[in-house]
Amino acid sequence: MSTVIRGGTVVTAARSFPADVLVEGGRVAAVGPGLRGDDTVDAEGCLVMPGGIDPHTHLEMPFMGTTTADDYASGTRAALAGGTTMVVDFCIPSHGQKLMDAWADWDRRSATAATDYSYHMCIVGWSAAIRDEMAEVVARGVTTFKHFMAYKGALMVNDEEMFASFRRCAELGAMPLVHAENGDVVAALQAELLAQGITGPEGHGYSRPPRVEGEAANRAIMLADQAGVPLYVVHTSSIEAHEAIRRARANGQRVYGEPLIQHLVLDEGEYLNPDWDHAARRVMSPPFRDKRNQDDLWNGLRAGSLQVVATDHCAFTTEQKRFGRSDFTKIPNGTGGLEDRMPVLWTRGVGEGRLTPEEFVAVTSTNIARILNLYPRKGSLEVGADADVVVWDPAAQKTVSAATQVSAIDYNVFEGLHCTGLPRTVLSRGEVVVRDGRVQAEGGRGRFVARAPFTPEARAARRLSDLAAPRAVVRP
Ligand code: DUC
Ligand code: ZN
Ligand code: ZN
Ligand code: ZN
């Protein structure tokens, strides 16, 4: 049983060229002109790209006294609707919980996934036991560890804990991730604002200014340098954090920055909206910034000093947001975006001349696969790669609306945004999971994708030839 995606223009992170893509046994079997298969997916007038990878999601995550409203079933179907064929979700242990027990909890949640998935493991404290358990996590294929520098009294780690974990990552060939905000300063500013009677969502923005993010990014980068590990800074939203990343890279450090689609497109004015629900629905950390910061993030994506675009998909219903009706610090932090990341980035990025189609593929898929050690199995259309493919119709249009979305929540932060450029057909491991824009994937078909450590030996051992014996190789 084979499928040929016929008549489109293949777009990779490197170049674009007209070619068919032959899919067999869930993998790319050939790329080139005039291919034949048992089934045909029409790609006339369309671009054929590697499926999107979202490196940052929170599906069915217990957080701030509640649990995110999109679970793996609705969240991964929303992802597919938007052209994303893989997510990397955060496994968050409770205090004192064994890392592998937290992993088992997440496996129960991800049993309904419609896309492939991986995890980042969170380090929320430090002990000899955690130090030991990290080795098993890496051995089982999770090679990234997340550290919250904010959420004081909950998820936050201090410098001593974070540095110990960074050193352990260095030993294991793992890569640390950081949520870079100074949690002590945020807590102080929150208390001050509440004491002044500022209790609404605007207080959220005021309590987390760019300096708070820049300070933490600089600190984490210095500690990573001292520990001798690469570092991935999640949801980079400010000039200050970007500058820290850029400087580290110029000094030869492997440091990566991840803007979110929300920070690229939406601005801090949203928190001043007199409609409480409107503003609260947009409360996430870091908060939205101003136009200068947005322009700077776009510049970073073009220059390569920022490498990927994610969502931090962490969706709460309006009812859940209202837990913070009288105190902004109790509004569950998080927004949705899984379904919108690719159409909105295409529209505002490629459509408005900020990104090329090749840069779009790089920041939504290929760079992510490379940085997280998923490449070339994911993030590429090379022969032998998993056939996660998006047939992208650059002329298709829609207006973002909660009324038509797949996500389980009752609003959309991009409501009313007009998109030109949408997925028409999506394949996941060779199976057509979106046809004519409609998701037809079964929950539970998604698989865990193990990732190798970042040691030179492990890198050298990962060859595309290990993935599959291709039936035919047609070089375009
Ligand atoms: N920020 C959010 O907005 N939600 C989840 C966690 C985070 O850091
Ligand atoms: Zn975060
Ligand atoms: Zn509104
Ligand atoms: Zn997050």
TrEMBL record:
Amidohydrolase-related domain mapped to chain residues: 47-433
Per UniProt, the keywords (alphabetical) are: Hydrolase, Metal-binding, Zinc
**What cellular component terms from Gene Ontology apply here?**
cytosol
Q: Per the UniProt entry, what are the Gene Ontology biological process annotations, in alphabetical order? A: nucleobase-containing small molecule metabolic process; pyrimidine-containing compound metabolic process
Molecular function in Gene Ontology? dihydropyrimidinase activity; metal ion binding
According to the UniProt entry, the coiled-coil residues are none
Recorded catalytic activity of this chain's protein: 5,6-dihydrouracil + H2O = 3-(carbamoylamino)propanoate + H(+)
- EC id: 3.5.2.2
Function of the molecule: Catalyzes the hydrolysis of dihydropyrimidines and of the structurally related DL-5-mono-substituted hydantoins, to produce N-carbamoyl-D-amino acids.
Family the entry assigns:
Belongs to the metallo-dependent hydrolases superfamily. Hydantoinase/dihydropyrimidinase family.
Task: Please give the name of this protein.
Answer: D-hydantoinase/dihydropyrimidinase
Organism per entry: Lichenibacterium minor
